[in-house]
Amino acid sequence: MYVITELAQYSLKDYLSLRRDQRKSISLDAVKNISKAIIMVVAGLHAKGFVHLDLKPENLMMFNGRLKLIDVDGCVRAGSDVSIQDSSISFSPCYCAPEWARFLTEESESKIVARPHLDVWSIGMTLCELAILDPILKPTYANFLRNGHSHREAGFLFMDWLGSIKKAPLPKHIEGHDPEFFRMVTENLLVCDFRVRKTLCQCMDDVYFQNDGSSVLGRPSAKDKLERENSGKVGHSPHLPEEVIERKVRNRVEDLSSKAPVHKGTLWKLNTNGGIEDATHWLKRDMWVACNGSLCYFSIKENRRLVLIDASRLVAAKIEACEPSAYEFSFRITATSDEHESDINLVFAAESAEEYQKWTSRLTSAANMDGIMQTMRLGGEMAAELKTFRLTVKNRRMKVVDDEKDQFAAIFKAKLWKVKAEGDRSKEGDWFEREMWISKNGSLVYWSKKEDGKCLLLFQQTCL
């Protein structure tokens, strides 16, 4: 059987990425127009009695100026039960609702009923990207990635945090972008209590969408008439800005640790403290960008594959051309690290302009977390990992709130050396000193400089 479908020009994610790279914000009218288009197309899905569960810019595609929703094969009937064991269900952590996060991380929530309000939150997160051109929760996710022991653990920690929020953590820039847009999103879409979250049809009645200048002196405009004529057509939505946008290949990789590299080849690497214009200070290495976003190489000395820059450290790094240099196609990777890590300042060179473009493009995508915030899938494997997470990981590094400080008071306190996450115990530089204590309730606690001197739990008594 052959299935022939339309070919989309690009996704909303591609459009936002282009704008971000060009440092061109989207006009207020365009934000309103695109927001309306997104709400209309998903409201149509809900009207048919389905819930998508994985709404994000990547799943909204442009077809000749019209927005359409894809990946509907993963939709479920509204009102049906979803279990953690259901491997047909996919979701994206940075776009899922707080109640979905609680369903995953709290042991008491074995099932969740698929309701449209789950998609409404995802729509709110998607619309906010129109204002800042980036996922609004990406910095938070990146912080968990830096402090987690693995990419999967970082995702679970992020979900645990998301399930506990009482207010949507919107950047102030969104309110400054357009106060009316900010009000519409916070009052209708990004409402943490799903019981009072509005439906998409109710959102369309918001005054923000009524004042769109589509009619003059109370008479329907030509645009209004056209929309009424086409209101019954599948996939109809207001036209979006027409621009030449390069469509990127959609990366559907889920098991990041076992898949083929995103890009591989050879690079010249400048020795530490080497002279950039001295060709004798450069070494040629076989290198690749792993699917999890890490920059790796093959060490002849150790005869094994090694990680040069872990994905968690490559996040937010700058990749810039550098000159003068002994090699024409050279670039520098720089990143500022936390108190326990050294800063990154490495120089590389490709062998051609084409290879330079490929390497810098892949590394920039890794730094922007394009390959890290992957879609996650439910199923038996995730259920087992979540069980382990609840027993161990969830009990680590929890902030001690003010009304619980008494039970975490010290009965023994001293300084301890601790090896950093995934550090080498044989290397002195991988250790750091911390003031720690055993509390009254039997937990191991420490002071965190990174958290502005806040008291954090390393292990609760139940874990010890």
TrEMBL record:
Residues 260-368 form the PH domain. Residues 219-238 are annotated as: Disordered. Gene3D superfamilies: Pleckstrin-homology domain (PH domain)/Phosphotyrosine-binding domain (PTB), Transferase(Phosphotransferase) domain 1. Residues 1-240 form the Protein kinase domain. One of its GO terms (molecular function) is protein kinase activity. Coiled coil: none annotated. Residues 221-231 have a biased composition (Basic and acidic residues). Pfam families: Pkinase. This is Uncharacterized protein. It comes from Polarella glacialis (Dinoflagellate). The lineage of its organism: Eukaryota, Sar, Alveolata, Dinophyceae, Suessiales.
